[in-house]
Amino acid sequence: MRPLAAKLTAARKAKGMTVTDVARQMPEVARSTVGHWFTGERQPQMDNLRRLAQILEVSAASLVADEPDYANTAEEKIGLHLLREMTPEQRQAMLALMKSMAKS
First and final CA of the chain: distance in angstroms? Predict the structure, then answer.
């Protein structure tokens, strides 16, 4: 899988969405084309990439950047990677824990 397709897939799964869910929010694009973006068979044009980022609630830059979301340290990169592998519920619980710890 190509890097962009892998990032799109990770973001989609983190939102708990299917390819069909994403395609429904982009009625101007054929469902098969949306599917090809997630397999890496095609690359979305910039306007569609921005729309995908909006739907998936990630920055367009994070989808095309080499480093995940401008992480500065190895620990940040690991943390972002682990967060992306969690279910949406797990992510919310982890973020709540991190916020409570930051207040201490």
Answer: 42
Query: What is the C-alpha to C-alpha distance for residues 17 and 57, in angstroms, rounded to an integer?
Result: 12
Q: One digit per residue, pLDDT tens: the chain, 104 residues? A: 688 999 999 999 999 999 999 999 999 999 999 999 999 999 999 999 999 999 999 988 888 876 454 556 778 778 888 888 888 899 899 989 989 998 86
Read off the amino acid at residue 104: S
Range of the domain at 42: 1-66
Question: What is the C-alpha to C-alpha distance for residues 34 and 52, in angstroms, rounded to an integer?
Answer: 9
45 and 28 together in one domain: yes
Are 62 and 80 in the same domain?
no
Do 69 and 37 form a contact (C-beta atoms < 8 A)? no
Same domain for 7 and 53: yes
